[in-house]
Specification:
Layout (H helix, E strand, L loop, with lengths): L3 E19 L5 E21 L3 E6 L11 H12 L5 E7 L10 H16 L6 H8 L6 H6 L2 E6 L3 E4 L7 E6 L6 H6 L14 H10 L2 H5 L3 E2 L2 H7 L2 H11 L4 E4 L6 E5 L2 H13 L8 E6 L10
Parallel strand pairs: 1-8, 3-4
Antiparallel strand pairs: 1-2, 2-4, 2-5, 5-6, 7-10, 7-11, 9-10
Length: about 300
């Protein structure tokens, strides 16, 4: 029996994010293009003979009890399958917190995948995704990874061809954003047609492997709320474009901004400016990475 699993919980960005309407149950119907990036959290799972779930993280302000999504993921599987042993979870977090990059959802997804293997539960990827949606709308996608169209509340996933590779610059301003606040202040049912991003056009450009076409169609309707409240978002987008980004946009409910670069030197120069240079006060965390196109299968 394998008693230690080392997993990478990859972050995501939204190449397109549209909110169609607010539903009667309080949720929102969305159409999003999700894309995994190379920035990841390290999740280590250690088997314990004694029952219970214990969590350790490198960030003191993260909860390590039942309020942690990783704890909820472990508890969900261990209760359903009456697992008598326990698990120790160690998290080394690099994905910015409350940043619109799905870090918490990806950590929970890693726990589901790892415990399925550790305790030989025999669940398929689809069965894990069915359980993941109980934890959060992004969790099924974080189990699958890659490039995908996400619909419904985010749980209906259609795999898309992988994005052509490029440099992805990520910059998170020194603020944290409440997803609940953003959706409550969007007034989705009152949006004008021109405020909705071109999701179908994005899908077509991805199918052609057209990085420039994708970059020209980036759109996130949630910027109407978050960018209005936090001016640094538009300022960071402007800096990235000045350095040659093909496109720049906020991810998810924000506040993280990403820029897509086909010129590696330009990407490094923009990174150095936002990290150390003239515009270093705009962002607290800055990373330079790329797309991660390895979709999860039953084997990995």
């Amino acid at each position: 029996m394998t008693t230690h699993f080392k997993l990478r919980a990859y972050g995501k960005i939204n190449l397109g994010l549209d909110v169609l309407r607010k539903r009667e149950d309080g949720y929102h119907d969305v159409r999003m293009i999700m894309q995994t990036v190379g920035l990841y959290d390290q999740v280590d799972l250690f088997f314990r003979r004694e029952p219970g779930i214990e969590i350790e993280t490198n960030l003191s302000y993260l909860p390590v009890n039942e309020n942690n999504l990783m704890y909820k993921a472990a508890d969900l599987l261990m209760e359903e399958f009456q697992v008598k042993n326990g698990v120790f979870i160690r998290l080394r977090k690099l994905i910015p917190v409350a940043a619109g990059m799905g870090g918490g959802s990806s950590d929970a997804a890693a726990v589901l995948v790892g415990l399925n293997k550790m305790f030989h539960l025999g669940l398929s990827m689809e069965e894990l995704m069915e359980r993941g949606v109980k934890l959060g709308a992004d969790v099924p996608y974080c189990i699958m990874r890659g490039t995908a169209l996400s619909e419904g509340i985010g749980e209906k996933l259609t795999p898309l061809p992988p994005m052509p590779q490029c440099q992805v610059l990520l910059a998170k301003p020194a603020v944290s954003v409440s997803t609940k606040f953003v959706y409550e202040n969007l007034h989705a049912n009152d949006l004008k047609p021109e405020q909705h991003p071109d999701i179908d056009g994005l899908i077509e450009a991805i199918g052609r492997g057209d990085l420039l076409g994708v970059s020209g169609r980036l759109g996130n309707v949630l910027e109407l709320v978050t960018a209005r409240k936090y001016p640094a978002i538009e300022e960071i987008k402007g800096v990235m474009r000045e350095y040659g980004a093909l496109g720049a946009m906020m991810s998810g409910s924000g506040p993280t901004v990403f820029g897509l670069f086909s010129n590696p030197k330009a990407a490094v120069t923009a990174y150095e400016d936002l990290r150390y240079g003239e515009h270093c006060t705009l962002a607290r965390q800055v990373y330079l990475t790329n797309f991660y196109n390895n979709r999860r299968t039953e084997e990995n």
